[in-house]
Write a structure and sequence with these properties.
2 copies of one chain form a homodimer.
Chain A: H1 6-10, E1 13-21, E2 28-29, H2 31-43, H3 46-52, H4 57-71, E3 76-80, E4 86-90, H5 92-124
Antiparallel strand pairs in A: 1-2, 3-4
The structure holds a DNA duplex.
Chain lengths: ~130, ~130
DNA sequence: GAACGACATGCGTATCTTTGCATCTCAAAT
DNA sequence: ATTTGAGATGCAAAGATACGCATGTCGTTC
């Protein structure tokens, strides 16, 4: 025991979510989509990417489609048939988007840390 | 016309959401809760606050309750009976929380603006 | 040209949220 | 003591999401 215990239980955590949208508000690229795209890049297959993301193929496919419709450009090059039945790989634009998204996220992480410290100071003491 | 029109439609917007949670992940104070509390402060009534927020009283009440359970302190002073049937007003702690949340949000907005510009530059050309 | 297996997609089902009652509770004002 | 109207809650209905299944498409490989 000691200084911990109750204090820990009461600790308030700060969370955030970052996503991109079109002006109409429709179609989004969220954290999940980002990770899904990263997996596609790694695996070369939407199906396997979805499996690793623990998400249904149906949803994964729908998410990518939505994102592409919103951006008005393709994120993946799809191939049907052939060995393995087909595959998906990222387009150059998708790769660039991922890089930019990642940098943005990193920046978010950094700036949230200091903002959070200030926040906690304000709500803690009387 | 000119430089706008199509370019605008394609504009990718950055969205983010900040919220507080307990360590278990349960109970949250989101943007919505923040605005709901602001309305309570303004109106002195949960019912009217919910109406203005365009949210059911049922949900509003549940959200506040959840938040209070998570924080382990009251956010509102509730009164039943009397003229008007009752009312709700914010506690001092709630006021402080709102201030801190607002400051957090503002600080975050500022520090993110730059990152967003970079992001847009990265994905726009080439 | 038959087989293979992922891409593609519709649609009914399951799951999670929010809403919409219905019902109580309570204390100030009459 | 009765009235009043928002706070407090349970619960079933309604909506929104996501999942699973079924079924079709396609192009390389054998």
């Amino acid at each position: 025991m000691g200084k911990r215990g109750k204090a820990d239980r009461r600790t308030v955590l700060l969370n955030y979510k970052l996503w991109l949208s079109s002006m109409s508000g429709e179609g989004i690229i969220s954290e999940d989509t980002y990770h899904l795209l990263m997996k596609i890049k790694e695996k070369g297959s939407l199906k396997r990417a979805a499996e690793e993301q623990n998400m249904s193929y149906r949803k994964a496919w729908g998410d990518i489609k939505k994102a592409e419709e919103m951006l008005e450009y393709e994120l993946t090059e799809k191939t049907r048939g052939g060995i393995g039945g087909g595959r998906s790989k990222l387009t150059g634009k998708a790769e660039k988007l991922l890089e930019a998204y990642h940098a943005l996220h990193k920046k978010f992480d950094e700036s949230i840390e200091e903002a959070y410290q200030e926040f906690r100071t304000k709500i803690s003491n009387k």
